[in-house]
Design brief:
The complex is a heterodimer of chains A (114) and B (112). Chain A is mostly beta strands. Chain A has strands at 4-6, 10-13, 19-25, 31-38, 42-49, 56-57, 64-70, 73-78, 87-94, 104-105, 109-113. In chain A, β5 and β6 (56-57) form a beta hairpin. The chains are: A mainly beta (114), B mainly beta (112).
Chain lengths: 114, 112
Amino acid sequence: DVKVTQSSRYLVKRTGEKVFLECVQDMDHENMFWYRQDPGLGLRLIYFSYDVKMKEKGDIPEGYSVSREKKERFSLILESASTNQTSMYLCASSLPSGHTDTQYFGPGTRLTVL
Amino acid sequence: SQKIEQNSEALNIQEGKTATLTCNYTNYSPAYLQWYRQDPGRGPVFLLLIRENEKEKRKERLKVTFDTTLKQSLFHITASQPADSATYLCALGPGGGNKLTFGTGTQLKVEL
């Protein structure tokens, strides 16, 4: 059974803190994605990676960075958390282009920045 | 710019009826369209994929249509059940690097 796990379900941080969100997939997928989801705005892509050490900016990369040192792990970093980064963060993985392109999502991390 | 529209208002229907959800898009020529289900506090789960050369796809009680002329997909759940209550997202692809573009979703509530 395919599985994408995220390090925390709920996280509370203070403004200015450095925040790490971890995502691990056990499906040997090449592609991994980080989204944030806000009411009325839907899923917005922050960053994605199609290979180890490769990354591409999504639609809203400002204030975020990512790291992919191993194929199964994709980390999202908030360098200096701000209150407008309070959101639900979702990680996903998929096979390379040309396959089914289905994305498999983790359970999400609800981050609150105070 | 690319735009995907799903009805932002919740759809309330009675158990046993057919639910029909709509996904419209503009400024996009997708090769395929996907539908996902999302329960509160959880990540989306893939349901169905339909390609641009397919008119209709079925899976158990689910049916998806794809009209590239109208730039619209319809998602049907027949014999709906309270357990079908969730938010349903449509997604178009591919973008570069196997990206998908998601709609904002429509909440479905199936009442007894």
